[in-house]
Design goal:
The complex is a heterodimer of chains A (233) and B (178).
Chain A lengths: L3 E10 L2 E11 L4 E5 L6 H8 L7 E6 L2 E2 L5 H10 L1 E4 L11 H11 L4 H14 L15 H13 L5 E5 L7 H18 L2 E5 L3 H4 L4 E6 L2 E2 L16
Chain B lengths: L2 H9 L4 E2 H11 L8 H13 L3 E8 L4 E7 L1 H12 L11 H12 L2 H27 L5 H36 L1
Antiparallel strand pairs in B: 1-3, 2-3
Helix pairs in contact in B: 2-3, 6-7
The chains are: A alpha/beta (233), B mainly alpha (178).
């Protein structure tokens, strides 16, 4: 059974086409970079794969089941349990502390308050930001916020992490530390990662790269580049 | 690269013989072009002739005599002068990659030039991934990470240039052929 798949996905914003028939397979446990110039449709593709957006045409399947036809509630449940999302700006809840932010997905899924906090603290510790557990996002550096957002994305132990330019707002070194941790944890837990980036340097953290151009997979250049021989798995 | 100045720098920590210098070089400058033993001894001989290093005792460890060398005051001054001199930032655009792409645009049609750029982009991307894997491996040494960072930054710059050039190919080709 295929893990995560897009088949002929089409999506437009008003009259502007963003995706013009994208077909793509994501294998379980792989780290896939989706690259391409700005406006090529890579973020829209990520949103469609993660069930945030519904395609206008085509299909998105998750473990053999079409999720693009699911209700908003069902897709939202999927995002709380099986998927984790990480955006350019952490998008933490400003009024909550780091630990509360990280515990949030667990609380929404019905985990008890104390167990959720324990799990949140464990993840913050794993990502080296336990010292800001009781700080609010406004009191943290960009790198700390993004690690906190990563803890929140990982706390439910999702099968797939969708990361949209996760280092875009960070300086080079902080960005690198965040990515190194993301990749290391993903490999340890066999979590699949779909990483959207326009930077070759960032895409190089992935096992495989798919480039988009004008809303389609670019087969002429690096599109569907095979994984490195003797790669990471 | 100035091998003499690198060797002077490695001697700043104290006297070393040729074999130790070669090892320190490989450790501190990982991924540098390999430095042959012969080159180390030839460079030491030249530095000695110029009074920048001086013999500082011999060691015999069951094998051949090994002369240790120490930095002289002149050597220290030469090293400080080198470190204090700013490297000219890219005075010429000299790169085989750059020259090859320009020539490809001159002699090949747009399609061939594009294929050449795409093949190069693939090779660069592959190397970028290898170096990224190397520096993110658990337990990677700081020396290795810094060397990989340097190579990655340059490959990244080349890749951006290759991407832009690919986008320009059609126009440029028309211009150079007209």
């Amino acid at each position: 059974m295929t893990f995560l798949q897009a088949r002929g996905v089409v999506r437009a914003y008003g009259h502007t086409p963003a995706l013009r028939g994208v077909t793509l397979d994501v294998a379980e446990g792989e780290i896939l970079a989706v690259t391409g110039p700005s406006g090529c449709g890579k973020s829209t593709l990520l949103h469609c794969l993660a069930g945030i957006l519904r395609p206008d045409a085509g299909q998105v399947t998750w473990r053999g089941e079409r999720i693009d036809t699911w209700s908003e509630a069902a897709r939202s449940r999927l995002r709380r349990t099986e998927f984790g999302v990480l955006f350019q700006f952490g998008q933490l809840v400003a009024e909550l502390t780091a630990a509360e932010n990280v515990a949030l997905p667990l609380l929404l899924a019905g985990t008890g308050r104390r167990a959720a906090r324990t799990a949140a603290l464990a993840w913050l510790d794993r990502l080296g930001v336990a010292d800001v557990a009781d700080a609010r996002p406004g009191e943290m550096s960009g790198g700390q916020q993004q690690r906190c957002a990563m803890s929140r994305a990982l706390v439910t132990e999702p099968r797939v992490i969708f990361a949209d330019e996760p280092t875009g707002a960070l300086d080079t070194l902080a960005g690198e530390q965040v990515l190194t941790q993301l990749v290391r944890l993903a490999r340890e837990q066999r979590t699949t990662v779909v990483l959207v980036t326009h930077e070759p340097r960032i895409a190089a953290y992935a096992d495989r790269e798919v480039s988009l151009r004008d809303g389609m997979v670019d087969h002429t250049g690096l599109g569907l580049d095979p994984a490195l021989p003797g790669g990471s798995r | 690269m100035s091998t003499s100045h690198v060797l002077l720098g490695l001697l700043a920590a104290g006297p070393r013989h040729g074999y130790e210098l070669k090892r320190a070089h490989d450790e501190r400058l990982p991924r540098a072009r390999p430095l042959a033993f012969g080159q180390v001894y030839a460079t030491l001989a030249r530095l000695h002739r110029d009074g920048l290093v001086a013999p500082a005792g011999q060691e015999r460890d069951g094998g051949p005599d090994r002369t240790a060398y120490a930095l002289t005051d002149d050597g220290r001054a030469a090293l400080d002068h080198w470190l204090g001199t700013v490297e000219p930032p890219m005075p010429y655009v000299t790169s085989t990659l750059f020259a090859k792409v320009v020539v490809a645009l001159l002699v090949a049609d747009a399609g061939q030039a594009r294929d050449c750029l795409i093949a190069q982009r693939r090779a660069h991307t592959q190397r970028l991934r290898e170096l990224t894997a190397l520096k993110t491996a658990p337990g990677a040494r700081l020396d290795e990470v810094i060397a990989a960072d340097f190579a990655i930054a340059h490959l990244d710059a080349d890749l951006r240039w290759l991407h832009t050039t690919l986008d320009r190919v059609a126009d440029w080709h028309r211009e150079v052929r007209s």
